[in-house]
Amino acid sequence: MEDLDYELLDPSNLKATLEQQGRAVKQALEENDAVLKQTAVKVNQFDKIILSGCGDKHVVPMITQYLTDAFSKKLVRVIHSRLLANYTPEWVDAKTLVIFLTASGTTKDVIDAINEVKKKKAEIIILTQLSDNKKKDSIYSAIKDYQNSQVIIPLKEGVITWPATTTFHTFLAVLNMLFIYVLMENNTPVDALLNLQYVEIPDYIDKLCKDKSLMEWCAATAKKLLEMKVLGFYFLGDGPRYAAVRKGALVHFVESCKEDSFPIENEEFIHLVIESLAEEHVEENVLIIMKPRESYITMQAYNQYELIKSLWRERAGKDRVITVDPFEFVEPTGVGKKNDILLTPLYVIVLEWLAYYYALYKKIDPAKMQYMKK
After folding, report:
1. Is residue 19 assigned to a domain?
2. % of the chain with per-residue pLDDT over 70
3. Each residue of 295-342: pLDDT tens digit?
4. Domain boundary among 144, 174, 207
5. Are 98 and 122 a contacting pair, CB within 8 Å?
6. CA dist 200 to 183, 252, 268, 332, 367, Å?
7. CB of 17 within 8 A of CB of 6?
8. What is the DSSP letter of 294?
9. Which of 62, 65, 54 is nearest to 243 (CA)?
10. Is 149 left (phi over 0), alpha (psi -120 to 50) or beta?
């Protein structure tokens, strides 16, 4: 880390943005607490719910869906906004709620999907950072005069940060909290979930985002990866951790670091990759795998994680496996087995820092996602 000139390589000071994500999550939850409680009453009236977005705002609801599946009997589906626009389900009607996520408020895929579900008279809620309700070609023009709609701004004084850092965490925290309040409306015991999401998660994120030992590990790992001259990266995660690797691979390593990266679920990796690996070129790829907490997943899932690591080390080499474990740097206490879903964003933070340092060492501006001018 000492060999990096941050003023030259990170002129937008994305580092400071990453370090303040815990504060932003705490602020977003505090600012929206009242409106989320009120909105939960409305959400609870619907049994058919769609969560929809694009890019990292498609990843956010993938995590929330694990929360709703674990604690609620409501049918909640995650559908990419472009797919929702092009292949609107026939069952969408006035008894369907669609929650859209778009930081900019101008995402064309989202606007097209809004227009399609409006035709079916669906209820609409939109999470966005766009506060200018007069902006043309935006979500506001799409829902103008449409009574069955509501807008929630996760961070009132926030700005859109690229590549999808703060807004990812604030949108996820707000969406999770909304559904925790929905569970409360159904008299589901939520004290542990409520305390974890509202009080503890912001503190864990804050601590992890500012942890010097984590930054040092990410910087050293990024430097080592670049020295390897890697052909491609496989990002692996099980269950909700797959959503974390999807963001890490596609948003950070493909978009930001300009590397060929592929997110794959642990559950599919053995079938799709390991069993059909050609002997040549294996050693040119690197596996970046999320380490689940052993006591919070099934024995089968943990054994599969260990098997994947073992097989890859055997075929590609020990240095070709990078294990991501946020709990080496922060240790949550008293988290129940299903509640562990809420800790998923901690993996994302590690991947954000890893990509940040990888970009710096590769001479890529981590905020603008462009090579530095020589």
Report:
1. yes
2. 94
3. 778 888 899 999 999 988 888 888 999 999 999 999 887 676 788 899
4. 207
5. yes
6. 19, 26, 33, 8, 28
7. no
8. G
9. 62
10. beta
